[in-house]
Amino acid sequence: MYSLLLAIIYVAFISLGLPDSLVGAGWPVMHQDLDVPVAYAGIITMIIAGGTIFSSLASERVTRRFGAGVVTAVSVGMTAAALVGFSTSGSFWMLCLWAIPYGLGAGAVDAALNNYVAVHYAARHMNWLHACWGLGASISPFVMSFALSSGLGWSSAYLIIGLIQVVLTFVLLIGIPLWGKVNPIVPSEPADASDGAHEDGDEPPGPRSAHVPLAQALRIPGVRLILTAFFAYCALESTAILWASTYLVSDRGVAPATAAAFASLFLLGITAGRFLAGFVADRIGDRQMIRGGFATVGVGVVMLALPLETDVLALVGLVVAGLGCAPIYPAIIHSTPVNFGRRNSQAIIGIQMAAAYTGSTLVPPLFGAISTGTGMWIFPVFLGALVALGLLMSERLNQLVASRARVRQLDQR
């Protein structure tokens, strides 16, 4: 049961990444066919992000009532319906309409799956699963490219990915009974004792678990620290993805084709780094993975910023930054039940997903506005500030959790 369900979850993570690159890959053609300005892509992504943030915040209540298996199946079904709807859309307002269930489904399944894996599986699987997300996100541009080059049109790409999601929905529906047959793992690090996490830490989240309201979850000491760290990381990742190529071309004079290739290597570095991190995550631990990840990104950012005549170091620095990013997201998620207790983990992971999408949605355009006034030279400085913020907040959380563990040990004596 353990292995079979794990295989289903791996496929679900690939499916989760499949639609994420479709809008960007197809928009140069889509906006012409729909006769709308190119900037309207931002409207679509903002609607999707809004739905994702809302469903992430609501995921704790929904998952506790219906279970992770049902939520995952229904959410993937919603994204499948939305993608098929995209393929039939002949006007921009229809895309906006279908973007609503797309976002709602994506946020709910993301939070439910991440919490389930954090509670039931080892750290290596969290890294490999998020690498599978990167694999899915890397596949969809090729699907769009095939559809466009073969004359099928952008709508066919959405239909293909949508039908894949439909098949996966049926697989998830059949596999719903498996979700309750995998026992939670035993945390290797002490859980946070606040708000019942210590007393109820061994209780796996499920339909009969008590609901943890949003306000209560935010009051747990340390939650705001990890939310800020997660916000900073996701802002860093999305800003680098969007603006790295522009920085290399406009500020460093790199050829556009070379810049685009190395910008894509940043994403490949994240995906490959997560596969590699899976082999050492259980031995090193989540906290060291987060610390080492931020430090490695910092090294890459410094390499990117050094004003040398050659651009080789800057290009390599971008790849190093991608490798450093790799373990941070999975490790933050996987450490949540350990830091705050399994009773609280679903609620906190839902808030973390909301913080992640907020950072990845708002900060890249914020950097665009800032760089308009200052110039693109500020790109590595901006990334460096996000690295420092994420590392500082995560280290403060580590100190808080360690101090509570020492207090509990003294009380037990």
Written description of the protein model:
Mean pLDDT is 81; it is low at 186-208. By secondary structure, this protein is mainly alpha-helical. The chain is globular, with a radius of gyration of 21 Å. The chain is built from 18 helices and no strands. Helices cover 80% and strands 0% of the residues. The chain folds into 2 domains: 2-177, MFS general substrate transporter like domains (Growth Hormone, Chain: A, Up-down Bundle), CATH 1.20.1250.20; 216-412, MFS general substrate transporter like domains (Growth Hormone, Chain: A).
**Helices and strands: which structural class?**
mainly alpha
CATH fold assignment of the largest domain: Growth Hormone, Chain: A
Low-confidence stretches: 186-208
* Main CATH class of the largest domain: Mainly Alpha
CATH superfamily of the largest domain: MFS general substrate transporter like domains
Q: What amount of the residues lies in strands?
A: under 5%
| Helix proportion range | over 70%
Number of domains: 2
Radius of gyration: 21 Å
Which sheet architecture does the biggest sheet show?
none
Q: What would you say the CATH architecture of the largest domain is? A: Up-down Bundle
Q: Number of helical runs?
A: 18
- What sequence of helices (H) and strands (E) makes up the elements? HHHHHHHHHHHHHHHHHH
